Description:
Layout: E1 4-6, E2 11-13, E3 18-20, E4 28-30, E5 45-49, H1 50-59, E6 66-69, E7 75-77, E8 80-86, E9 94-100, E10 103-107, E11 129-134, H2 146-162, E12 166-170, H3 176-184, E13 190-193, H4 194-204, E14 214-216, E15 229-232, H5 240-243, E16 248-253, H6 257-260, E17 270-272, H7 280-290, E18 294-300, H8 302-311, E19 316-318, H9 327-339
Parallel strand pairs: 3-4, 4-5, 5-6, 10-11, 11-18, 12-15, 12-16, 13-14, 13-15, 16-17, 18-19
Antiparallel strand pairs: 1-2, 2-3, 7-8, 8-9, 9-10
Helix pairs in contact: 1-4
Amino acid sequence: MKLIKFTKKGIYCIPGKFYLDPWFPVDYAIISHGHADHAKWGMKHYLCHDESKSILKHRIGPDISIESLPYSKQISINDVKVSFFPAGHIIGSAQIRLEYKGYIVVFSGDYKVKNDHLTTPFEPVICHEFITESTFGLPIYNWLKEDVLQQQMQDWVLNNQSKNRTSIFIGYSLGKAQRIMKLMEGMTDMYVHSAIHNTNEALKSSGIILPETKRWTVDTNKKELQNKIVIVPPALLGSNMIKKIPNAVTAICSGWMQTRGSRRWASVDAGFPVSDHADWNGLLSAVKATKAEKVYVTHGSQATFSKYLNEIGIYSEEVKTEYGSNEEDAVEDANTKKAS
C-alpha cells in the first residue's frame, strides 16, 4: 500500500493530503519537533505535540494557525489515523504515526533512545514502514551513560571553580541548552544567553519545569559570573561577548566531540559528547523494535546505515531530504565561520 511519497516539498501522505515536516510551504503540515530544519515558516496550518506548540509559535510566529495533541491521542485526517509518540530527541519531540486501512507508517523525525531525565523517553512503535534519521549512523558513535557524562562535566566545572574560572558551555538554544542545564542542576548559579532564556520561557508556558537559571546580557556584572556556569548558543563561539568574561573557559557540547575532540575548534578548552540524537546502537535498537518491513533512511550517514540494515536482513532505502541543518551542525557551522 502506498501511504507516503517523497516529494520536492517534503514527505507527503497521499490519502491524508498533508505533509510531514515539509521544507516548503504547504496547506497542512504535521511537525515532529521545533528545530528549524523540521519546523519551517509558511505553512497554512500546523499540527504538533502539545509541548511543541509554544515553541513553534515562539520561533515561527505567534499568529500561526496551529493545533496540538498529547502523546497517543488519535485523530482522523481524511480517513488517516494520526497520532504522536515520544521521540526522546528534545522536549516536545514526537514520532508521527500514520495508519490507513490497517497499514502503518511511522516518521521518527529526530530521536534519541537514551533517557536524559528531561525529555519524555523514546517509545518504539510497531509499523510496516519506518522513516529514520542517521545523524550518527556510524559504529564509532557510542554515547556515554548519562551519569558518566554528567560526572565528567561536573568535574570540569569543579576544577574550573578551584581556579576561580567561569565555565562556559556552548549548546543549541532548543534541546541542547536545556540538557546542559539538567546535567548541571544544583552545582551553582547558571546564566543563559537571551536566546536560551526566551526559549526556556516558551517551554515553561507549556508547563515544562526546568532548572533555575538567570538571564545573561551585556549588562550583567562580570563579577557575578566568577565560578559560575554560563550557557550560550553556537553563534557566540569566539565572540567578543564571551571574550569579555574574565578568566573564562569554554566547552562545546555536541555528539561530534566523541571523535573529533576539542582541539579542532579554536579558542575552546574542552568538549563533551552531549547529543540529542541516537548513537549507532540506539539507531539499530530503534529500527529493530519497530519490526518494520521497510526502512527509509534520511539525513546523516544514510549510505552506511542503510547498507548495514540491508546486510542484516532489514530492507532499507536511502532518501534525500532537507533535514540535517540542526543543533549538531550549528556547532560545526560556528567553527567553520570562525576559522574562515
